[in-house]
Amino acid sequence: MYERTVLPNGVRIVTEYLPYVRSVTLGAWFDVGSRHEAPTEQGVAHFLEHMLFQSTAKYSAQDIAEIMDRSGSYFNAFTGRERTCFYFKVLDEYWPIASDVMQQMLLQPLFLPEEIAKERQVVLEELKMYEDDPEDQVQDLLPKALWPTSSLGNSILGTVQTVNSFDRATTESFFRKHYTADRLVIAAVGNIRHSQVVDDFASAFTELSAGPAVRAVEPPSAGTAQRVLCSKSTQQIHLCLGRTTFSRTDPRRHALRLLDTLVGGAASSILFQELREKRGLVYNTYSFNALYSDAGCCGIYAGFSPEQWNQVWDVIHNLFTELPSLITEEMLTRAQDQLRAGILLALESTESRMMRLGRAELNGAKSFDPERLLRKIAEVKYSDLIALAEEVFMLDNWSSIALGPKELLEGDVKCQKIC
Predict the structure, then answer these.
(1) Domain region containing 201
(2) Which of the chain's ends, N or C, has fewer CB atoms near its CB within 10 Å?
(3) For 154-212, how does the pLDDT look when each residue is reduced to its tens digit (9 = 90+)?
(4) Distances from the Cα of 418 to the Cα of 31, 34, 399, 415, angstroms
(5) Are residues 86 and 186 in the same domain?
(6) Quick check: is 135 catalytic?
(7) In terms of domains, do 197 and 231 share one?
(8) Residues 167-178: pLDDT tens digits?
């Protein structure tokens, strides 16, 4: 069962007690991400994700690693455009360890100058790693094309220039301003009772400040469709097309999820079947979508040899022009079955359930109701799906980013029509 407690300072504690498992996943969610950064701060939220695993008043980074490894536990974190999450997955008997370490990370980080300097180099190496992966790089460029004047379009990792500028003052200032009680959700799922979680965190977080008032981010203005070709010495062309859609609260989000599944979300999807299975033109192709508080986007990706460009583009062009006629009612049913199975299978993991519970609380849903989600997906009608496909898949509204060898610019190839 789900239980929820709100502390006087605004910290929300949400739990789901599962007495039949031996694991507990503990997460700390902050309603802050790269979107909340000033231009000179790009990447600082991600940098803080790294720094909170460094020295605290009680533990060093090595202590945290050794404690968690000794107990066979798993710990990780991620930074998004609007949220940041830190989480531990442990055996129930090691709950006190996970609870104590999490409290230290959130309440007593030291931000030692020498560790900031070290972690700065780590993040710079991470930037290089992404630049060496053209698939990641092309997808990182797409949001900037979609929202060119908004922080929503900025890279989560930041830039070499901004990361090099991070010092203790910059890092600690952003932390004190944004990682506050009113933006924090503690979520725990597994063999742990709600009362235990509240007891462990309530007293420790009583003094956590709600922080100063933070100016709300402005709704992003979508730019006009862009055509960009980035020269890069690669063996493949990496093509990413995308467009803006709507927010995570839009009632059409369930139809969009199904449309994404049909277009490129599985081995039976249109893109995978047409580009890989029938023609052998690609190894990797898929579609995706990302929804935020007041905006969203969807896109498709394909990686292929330069000589295959014309054939790949013909398939993609046909997808845009013929999608409504390609989708059948049987395909909708198959996609609904696929999503249903994925949701139900994920419920067998305390980690997955914690993720859904934390996100639901930040979304204002108070608790995650899988049955309601399943009903909403099952209620999507064929006519709704076709109407959304006709609205979304209009090629003139899509931006395109392609990474590939410079010689692609030369010759009579269809890429010149979009790039």
Answers:
(1) 2-205
(2) N
(3) 999 999 999 999 999 999 999 999 999 999 999 999 999 999 999 999 989 987 887 77
(4) 37, 29, 9, 6
(5) yes
(6) no
(7) no
(8) 999 999 999 999
